[in-house]
Design a protein that fits this description.
elongated; about 120 residues
Length: about 120
C-alpha cells in the first residue's frame, strides 16, 4: 500500500519545490530582463554599457554589484511563486481527493490525461 500525501502536504512540497527552482533560475531571469530592457545608442560610451549576451550580463552583474546583484528582488518573486504554487497544489490535490472519494474504483486505475487536464 502506498502513502498518499494530504492536500496540505502536497501544497508544502509544491511550494518548496517551486521556491527552490525559482532561486536557482533567478539570476538567469534577471539577466534576461536586463537584456530585454537595455537601450541601443550610437554613443560609444553607451555602447560600452550594453550587455553582449547572457554570460556577459551575469559576469558584469557579479563584478559591479556582487552576488547580491544576482538575487536582487528575489524575496518578492519568491513570495508570489510560493503563494501561487501553494494554492495550486492544495486545490488540485483537494479536488483530486474528492474525485477519488466519489469514484473509489478509479484509485486502482490512474486518471487519463484528458481527465487530469480538465
Amino acid at each position: 500500500m502506498s502513502y498518499r500525501l494530504s492536500p496540505f502536504e502536497n501544497a508544502i512540497a509544491g511550494s518548496v519545490s517551486s521556491a527552490f527552482a525559482n532561486t536557482i533560475t533567478y539570476p538567469l531571469d534577471i539577466a534576461k530582463t536586463r537584456l530585454q530592457v537595455q537601450t541601443h545608442s550610437h554613443d560609444l560610451k553607451n555602447e560600452e554599457k550594453l550587455y553582449k549576451g547572457t554570460i556577459d550580463c551575469l559576469k558584469r552583474m557579479i563584478k559591479e554589484e556582487g552576488l547580491d546583484g544576482l538575487y536582487s528582488g528575489l524575496f518578492s518573486s519568491l513570495f508570489g511563486t510560493v503563494a501561487s504554487s501553494f494554492a495550486y497544489f492544495f486545490w488540485y490535490s483537494l479536488v483530486k481527493k474528492g474525485y477519488y472519494k466519489q469514484n473509489p474504483k478509479s484509485i486502482e486505475k490512474p486518471l487519463s490525461i484528458r481527465v487530469e487536464l480538465t
